[in-house]
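User: Okay, second chain of the day. Same drill as before: sequence in, structure tokens out.
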Amino acid sequence: MTVAVVLAVSAAIFVVVLGAFLGTRRPEKTARPAPRPPEPASEPSSSHPALARPVVLDPDYLDPRTIKVGDTIDRQGARSRVLGALHLSWQGDQWIEYLLEEGVRHYQWLSVEEREGATPDDPPHLEVYLWTPVPTQGMVPAKSMLIMENVEFYPIDRGTAAFRSEGTTGYPERGLVDFADYRAADGRLLSFDRVQGQAWTAAYAQPLSPGSINVERML
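Assistant: Same drill. Structure tokens below.
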């Protein structure tokens, strides 16, 4: 959500080289509802397991927006399973949030969004963030500066995004999510969000460095 909103036994490996950096087109927006305990998902399986074989695809032709529910994400040795995905839209922008499960009931969201370049001559690029929940302790997102864990964060954007849920996310099939995004002086990003009618949750964003993600899929 911007700073508005995102994981199988592998037999085919897709290597995804990602460049993640802050957009300059306008304040970031990545709608990313914080994880809630989802219902257990069934294990995906190949319809012809005996025919499955490892295939390595050229990373130059891969797009992280094509990650699927049931894939396994490897981030420099940290492996997570893609449980579900949220497809979000806000003011004409669209992005995807993948819900990852690392270990037992440890959840994070991976957001992927295409951004325009800083100038009309610059090509679009993808921004990829890993979101880690933080306790809100009953806090609500202020319209002015707020302090989280002794760090001052200043508002950069807020609004309401529409979402469609796929797989296991713990959220309705469709709905609306409110968000409020902040940035600290050192560049750290913080986002509050809530499915309308529910409590606020919060998470920090970690940009992923190029080459830090592998995607494994059972074919």
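The first strand starts at residue 12 and ends at 16.

User: Thanks, on to the next one.
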